[in-house]
């Protein structure tokens, strides 16, 4: 992605991050009195990126539910660089970074219409059962996803 900031250390021998890009229009309800996107709206942009990622790589919310697994956020961080404004078309670049632990490390770049990075950030999710108990071993479907990723089967 070429961001100025790297949130997750890439380990030698790990597969490259998986990337998805999604475009989105800034809605009027998302801007404040100053005409800028209110800072509290940015988490929904990250979710838009995760939804696009899940749709592309088989990690959609519905897949987690079907497999009786939840993936709650345990960390979120945003670095605001420049404001976004009503009616702009933005691009959300979402990358999943390899981690040997049973967690999902996503980084994001929100790109403005001029192609400049407006915001970067990251989220960390852990996997739990439906009761909220932390999973200590990956379920078979997650093992399959990780094997395909490590083998380079994703474009």
Question: Which terms summarize this structure?
Answer:
Thiol Ester Dehydrase, Chain A, 155 residues, 7 strands, 5-stranded antiparallel sheet, two-stranded antiparallel sheet, alpha+beta
Low-confidence blocks of residues = none
Across the major sheet, the strand order is 1-4-5-6-3
Please summarize the sheet with the most strands: 5 strands, antiparallel
CATH fold group: Thiol Ester Dehydrase, Chain A
- Corresponding CATH superfamily: Hotdog Thioesterase
What's the overall average pLDDT, rounded?
A: 94
Structural shape? globular
In words, what does this structure look like?
- Strand 4 (89-97) and strand 5 form a beta hairpin.
- The protein has one domain (18-150): Hotdog Thioesterase (Thiol Ester Dehydrase, Chain A).
- It contains 3 helices and 7 strands; from the N terminus they run βααββββββα.
- It starts with 17 loop residues before the first strand and ends in a 5-residue tail after the last helix.
- The radius of gyration is 16 Å and the shape is globular.
- It has helices at 42-57, 61-66, 140-150; strands at residues 18-25, 69-70, 73-80, 89-97, 103-111, 117-126, 128-129.
- The protein is α+β, with helices and mostly antiparallel strands and 155 residues long.
- The relative contact order is 0.23.
- The strands form 2 sheets. It has a 5-stranded antiparallel sheet with strand order 1-4-5-6-3, covered by helices on one side. The protein has a two-stranded antiparallel ribbon with strand order 2-7.
């Amino acid at each position: 992605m070429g961001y100025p900031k790297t949130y997750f250390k890439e380990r030698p021998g790990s597969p490259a991050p998986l990337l998805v890009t999604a475009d989105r229009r800034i809605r009027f309800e998302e801007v404040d009195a100053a005409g800028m996107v209110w800072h509290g709206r940015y988490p929904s942009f990250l979710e838009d990126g995760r939804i696009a990622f899940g749709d592309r790589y088989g990690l959609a919310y519905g897949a987690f539910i079907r497999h009786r697994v939840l993936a709650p956020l345990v960390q979120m961080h945003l670095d605001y660089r420049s404001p976004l404004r009503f009616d702009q078309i933005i691009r959300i670049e979402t990358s999943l970074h390899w981690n040997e632990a049973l967690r999902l490390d996503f980084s994001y770049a929100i790109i403005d219409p001029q192609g400049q990075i407006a915001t970067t950030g990251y989220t960390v999710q852990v996997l739990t059962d439906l009761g909220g108990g932390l999973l200590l071993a990956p379920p078979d479907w997650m093992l399959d996803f990780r094997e395909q990723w490590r083998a380079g089967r994703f474009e």
